[in-house]
Amino acid sequence: MLFTSYSFIGFTGVLLSVYYLVPRRLQWIILLISSCVFYWVANPASLIYVSFTAFTIWGCAIMIDRDYGIQNEYIRLNKGTISKEDQKAFKARHKMIREIWTSFGIFLNIGILIVTKYFSFLAGLFTVQQNHFTDIIVPLGISFYTLQAVGYLIDVKRGTIKAEGNLFKMLLFVSFFPQVIQGPISRFSDLSVSLFGEHEPERKEINFALQRILWGYFKKLIVADRIAPAVITLVSDPAKYRGAYVIVALVLYTIELYADFTGGIDISIGVAGILGVKVTENFRRPYFSTSLKEYWRRWHITMSQWFREFVFYPVSTSKLVQGISKFARKHLGNRGKKVPVYFSSFIVWVATGLWHGANWTFIIWGMLNWLILTVSEELEPVYAAFHKKVGFSNSYGYKVFMCFRTILLICILNLFDCYSSVRDTISVLASIITETELGELFSDKMLTIGMSGLDYVIVLAGVFVMLAVSLIQEKGDVREYIWKMPYAIRFAIWFALFLSVLLIGAYGIGYDANQFIYNRF
Amino acid sequence: MEKLLEILKEMHPDVDFENETGLIDNMILDSFDIVTLITEISDNYDVTISAEHIVPENFNSVQALYALIKKLESED
Amino acid sequence: MKQRKKSIIRFLASALIVFLVLFLLQRLLIPKYATGIVEGAFVAEYYKEENKQFDVIFVGDCEVYENFSPVVLWEEYGINSYIRGSAEQYIWQSYYLLEDSLRYNTPQVAVFNIQSLQFNESQSEAYNRMSIEGMKWTQSKVNAIKASMTEDEHFLDYVFPILRYHSRWSELTSDDLKYMFKSPSVSYNGYFMRVDTKPADYVPEGRNLPDYSFGDKAWYYMDMIRELCEKNGIQLIMVKAPSLYPTWYDEYEAQVVEYSHKYDIPYYNFLELKEAVGLDYSTDTYDAGLHLNINGAEKMSHYFGRILSDEYGVTDRRGDVELDKIWMKNINDYETEIDRQCILYGVDRNSLFRYSRKDQ
């Protein structure tokens, strides 16, 4: 069920009315049933996969929690009677038991992820022959819910949250349908209260959520889906579309990715919102970032957070890496201090790349991100000195320049997840320099790639609207701002937005029903 | 405590670490800083701060961080 | 209390504005078919007829609405008929259009052009639209939509055509505004008139097909049409229009003949009756043999009208005051259009079969 399908809108509508009619304590069960239906409709096997994840994670978490209980009970009962050493040994032993349960849960679930998503890629590394594993279906949302489930398990192991005793609540937590298609990746402590809670229909809250959904459709249908055919045309034939075409592809894809992904998340958060469920924000105007580092704090926030919490910190504080660090400092002096950081972030970026897709292009994409981040980290003192020297580093113009610089970097990085092979990507990137005739950029040729002149105008207008909204958002909440206006103006604004989606949206016969691009990752 | 302040000052000379209580919340320390800091602490205090200790409550202020170190030392 | 009242009024006013704006937009955006592809307007035009007591109903594709002229059937035999034809009308659409017509009157004869038996699925969304959209909302329309939808279509798009035509705002013309609420009539009891001529001097050879047998769905609706007629005491007549192409294969013909024998349904293949009808493909077609022009249609009507009245006893309604009046107007409109087209296409009016014959 695509977010942009009639069936999804109908599904949400039915759910909404049932949700606020049933006794409040049953609301979470309604959510569970809808989520199961959502999976079932996509593919019955998907429901089995997600149930398996819920079951294993639930079980492991309970075993961990039980072990915490045993440990605390033992210490309480034997307080003063056992030696400190014994207590320490006891604790260490139990910590080990918890580690085993955690590893077991992670192993099972990451294992399924690897088998369903990466097997053919891995097999391809070792054999040149066509293999038969390529036809394993990738279960719906597996990349997202697996991370969410594993994060939960580690949180339980760390003792930051208690294990959820109810298996069905666990199933709802991993399968909650607005998050299935493309995230966000929620943490249990953030999501559980409102997910399992009881909700009264709040007028303002539901209004805001509906407005957010509408805004998501605006981005998705007016901007992203209008661009999609052109991007597909351009990247599917890298031998034909080179030079100026690549510049167009670069710009269009960067707009499309933003409109598609943030629009989809707006719909996710909005749909959860009308049900009273608060889902973590995933974006904070990412294209306003002045550096790649900042960009990764503002783009796909929940994913970066996940990798930071559950990969970067554990790896960088592990005995092995700290040992390497000691060694490096001995031989490199103060320089070596950063070794754990660079080493661990390298692992994070390879993992992030792999998570996006089973292809070398994504691994290279991850490594390039790492390279740029590392180089700029090392050059930090140089920049600082430069900024101190020149007076304009705090000016608005310079900030805008830095934003554009960052966007340019992102455009280039993004190309790696467009083209199907690394070789193609590098070849088309090189063609920008060697084959571009600037005249072509504004010639009729750009009207032959699946977008008409009118399409370009609409996209441009859409970009301006998104830019304007983002600029206001930097100062405050746009919906709050409109909420305070007189009713007639409020009504006119939202009705106009609705009409523009209805009339200008690229949907229905004649347009390709495009999936959200992020959902293939 | 003095040593800890010294380490922090070296990383961000322009921050008033004695009085700042939102090192994480106000995004003064990023993830790179935290890991570098942990490496320094393990060199200087002989305690290992592991991933599960990296929560804002432990890193928001020098005082909190120092308390964490003391706690870990006593557990060892 | 006052606050509550205020918000209710506000809500109702907003809802009213929303519905009104959407309704007007929908009227504006749906294609009007008043000029250009007028075939799209035919299905809806039927409902404009005040008197729907037709004795003969034709259903089928362009092979009925371009090849029979109800005006001639009336003039020569007093047959009160209507053609419920539309471009590439698929057989399930023919069935539901016939069913829909029965709501108003049970005809004596139903004529079905069997060309569409060769399609087992709707081939094009655009043709679906033209055949179904004009229907009034009844169970027949619902079923017609369900039977017709191609893979990419949604039922909702038929209920709210604005969803289908939402992007037409970039191609609106003055016609869309002019005919927003009322369109002019473009057919003559469902007949699509052309007075110009393009002789058929070359007939393309039909390609060999891997399989000539008609599909299950097509046969199912053929049976449905037959049973509907049996149930209502309507004489069903199958015809094949004398279009030179698309090729009507012998294998097709054999299946229809077999069916007609099996159920004792009369079948007239006008491709084989060309000489009897007196068709001349150098003067009687406007697109080189694909469709007949007014000459061909009138010759066909002259010939077929005799069969209808002599062999199937279709009532001669001339003398019925109300019908006489209606047909007087119909004939007048018909001849006005002939004159308009003669000027448009530069045709000598007196060279037309209609007038050259009368002169004799």
In short:
The complex is a heterotrimer of chains A (521), B (76) and C (360). Chain A is an all-alpha fold and 521 residues long.
Task: Based on the model shown, name its key terms.
heterotrimer, A: 521 residues, mainly alpha, 3 domains, 20 helices, 72% helix, disordered C terminus, C: 360 residues, alpha/beta, Rossmann fold, 5-stranded parallel sheet, 16 helices, 5 strands, 48% helix
Number of structural domains of chain C:
1
CATH homologous superfamily classification of chain C? SGNH hydrolase
Main structural class of chain C: alpha/beta
CATH class identity of chain C: Alpha Beta
Terminal CA distance of chain C reads 85 Å
Can you tell me about this structure?
The complex is a heterotrimer of chains A (521), B (76) and C (360). Chain A is mostly helical. Chain A has three domains: 21-198, no CATH class; 203-279 and 420-521, no CATH class; 287-418, no CATH class. Chain A has 20 helices and no strands. Chain A has helices at residues 6-19, 27-42, 44-77, 84-126, 142-158, 167-175, 188-196, 203-236, 244-274, 292-298, 301-316, 319-332, 339-356, 360-389, 396-415, 422-435, 438-441, 453-475, 478-483, 487-504. Mean pLDDT of chain A is 87; it is low at 129-134 and 512-521. Chain B is mainly α and 76 residues long. In chain B, helix 1 runs antiparallel to helix 2 (31-45). The mean pLDDT of chain B is 84. Chain B has a single domain (2-75), classed as Orthogonal Bundle (Non-ribosomal Peptide Synthetase Peptidyl Carrier Protein, Chain A), CATH 1.10.1200.10. Helix content of chain C is 48%, strand content 7%. Chain C has a five-stranded parallel β-sheet, sandwiched between helices. In chain C, 39% of the residues are buried. The mean pLDDT of chain C is 90. Classes of the chains: A mainly alpha (521), B mainly alpha (76), C alpha/beta (360). Chains in contact: A-B, A-C.
